[in-house]
Write a structure and sequence with these properties.
single chain, about 280 residues, alpha/beta, Rossmann fold, about 25% strand, globular
């Protein structure tokens, strides 16, 4: 990882913190082949954005659970890839359809792309997904009920699953922590997995939406088996041999090329303000 720009180093640090509690300055200095002074400057930049916490000798993620990184941090990861996936996925949605979006950050970017649609019904357990569509003309948003999970900005529980059991949805777009041909789409949190399963059961077609970094990961719980998947929308960094294996298994795989770097997503305080007042997500 030599010769990275500061932006690339910051992204790499966030990726490392997605799977680890903390990372020491010395390790980052060695990995990036830069001085510890430079690393500390990078960590300060991340801390000032409210994405990480500085600790003695290193940095740790701002986590709301034992093994799950908060929404604010995940929203900053792989932004260009997620936006490319969202642009490809929105082409699959027709006017007048009902679609389900989970509380993943990729679903959030897809919600922003859906704002131009008309006569659309969106069912979601994601609070930021719902807020992104709240004032979009021609879109009706149904939020499943249940218990708030602050780390994921989502609502989970039996109230949500009861609604989904009586609903028929044309297409579902679900993020995932990892995937495999043996176990399908996978995620970490049991409550999130349960509502993803209920969403999938209510959908006529199911698409996984996940960037190229997820193709090398596994997770504790499966929520959609391979045989139930209509397709996967990913970006061009997904490993070509694995993409081909999924296609041979009968799953359509759409790969999107990230375009020029976009403006950064909202800052954490903007997200919190949007939940309170509905602004800042247009």
């Amino acid at each position: 990882m030599h010769g990275l720009s500061q932006h690339e180093r910051l992204q790499q640090i966030l990726r490392m913190l997605e799977t680890r509690d903390s990372v020491p300055v010395s390790e980052l200095s060695e990995s990036f082949a830069v001085s510890e002074v430079t690393v500390r400057s990078d960590l300060t930049a991340l801390a000032q954005q409210g994405l990480v916490a500085r600790v003695r000798g290193g940095v740790r993620a701002l986590q709301q659970g034992h093994s799950e990184v908060g929404f604010d941090l995940r929203l900053r990861l792989e932004v260009e890839r997620k936006r490319a996936i969202a642009r490809a996925a929105v082409a699959l949605v027709g006017e007048g359809e009902a679609v389900a979006l989970d509380a993943s950050t990729t679903a959030y970017y897809l919600a922003l792309e859906l704002r131009s649609k008309r006569e659309l019904v969106v069912v979601t357990n994601g609070l930021l997904v719902a807020t992104a569509l709240a004032d979009a003309p021609g879109i009706t948003v149904l939020v499943t009920g249940g218990t708030l999970r602050l780390s994921a900005m989502s609502v989970v529980g039996d109230l949500g699953t009861d609604v989904l059991r009586t609903t028929r949805i044309n297409k579902g777009f679900l993020g995932a922590r990892g995937l495999s041909l043996e176990r399908g789409l996978m995620d970490l949190n049991p409550d999130e997995v349960r509502i993803k399963q209920e969403m999938a059961d209510a959908c006529e077609q199911i698409y996984g939406i996940l960037d190229g970094t997820k193709w090398h990961r596994s997770a504790l719980l499966s929520f959609v088996p391979v045989e139930d998947l209509t397709g996967i929308v990913t970006d061009s960094s997904a490993p070509s041999d694995e993409v081909e294996a999924w296609r041979e298994a009968g799953v359509e795989v759409i790969t999107a090329d990230p375009g020029p770097r976009e403006a950064p997503p909202l800052r954490p305080r903007d997200l919190r303000r949007a939940v309170r007042g509905g602004d800042g997500l247009n």
